[in-house]
Amino acid sequence: MNDHVFNLADTQLHARADGSLWCPIGRILCVSDLHLGKSERIARRGGTLLPPYETRETLWRLEEAVAATDPSEVICLGDSFDDLAAAQSVSDETRATLARLQAGREWVWIEGNHDPGPVDFGGSHRTDVQRGALTFRHIAKASSQGVLGGEISGHYHPKAALRGTGRRPCFLLDKSRLIMPAFGTYTGGMSARHAVLADLMSTDAIAILTGKHALPVPLAACTMR
């Protein structure tokens, strides 16, 4: 088994090696920060011209996760598109892929800071959603620490490395919250040991590195870079 299984707010969750999150109760698949259309947005703003394949690659990986779990609901935790113009510029192929993935299941687009408004791709658009004892939102709230229930968020694109290894996208987990890795192909990342994240996570937090398998390690064991 390549997942790391853990409990948050008395709810069993699976941190998957591909960076998605699986909740067996309710059959919910959660992904964060797809940033679809990032290459188009960079080119539009006069930046480096990047091969326009990141949307296809990200959706291929999402298709793999959906096929592996067969969820009843998919929650996208914000910044699903790199900005609203990128959402409006996606290809017919991308629209068809999203429609196929949404067929027969609930689909929730959480509002992010890159895409702070409704997107015309089916599903529902929310600022956050509550599922049992879990709250799903884009950016973690500092006040969530130590309260009842659990918070699942994205936004920060955490990455971690052990000594002698390269940085990998990772989940950050403590007793009250989970911060998701970015699922998108062209996304950068913030060190899991960055002060911003240290202020959000408890001192006994762990990082769950993605890759061939989900690898849980104490956050304190990760390098600072």
Describe the protein.
With 225 residues, this protein is α/β, with parallel strands linked by helices. The chain is built from five helices and 16 strands. The chain has helices spanning 38-44, 54-69, 84-88, 92-102, 195-200, and strands at residues 4-8, 11-15, 21-23, 28-31, 73-76, 106-110, 124-126, 128-131, 134-137, 150-153, 158-160, 168-173, 177-179, 190-191, 206-209, 215-218. Strands 8, 9, 10, 11, 12, 13, 14, 15 and 16 form a nine-stranded mixed beta sheet that branches. The protein has a seven-stranded mixed beta sheet with strand order 1-2-3-4-5-6-7, covered by helices on one side. Mean pLDDT is 87; it is low at 41-47.
Radius of gyration, rounded? 17 Å
Helix content: 10-25%
Mean pLDDT: 87
Distance between the termini: 29 Å
State the helix count. 5
Percent in strands: 25-35%
N-to-C SSE series?
EEEEHHEHHEEEEEEEEEHEE
Low-confidence stretches: 41-47
Structural class: alpha/beta
How would the global form be characterised?
globular
Describe the largest sheet: 9 strands, mixed
Counted beta strands: 16
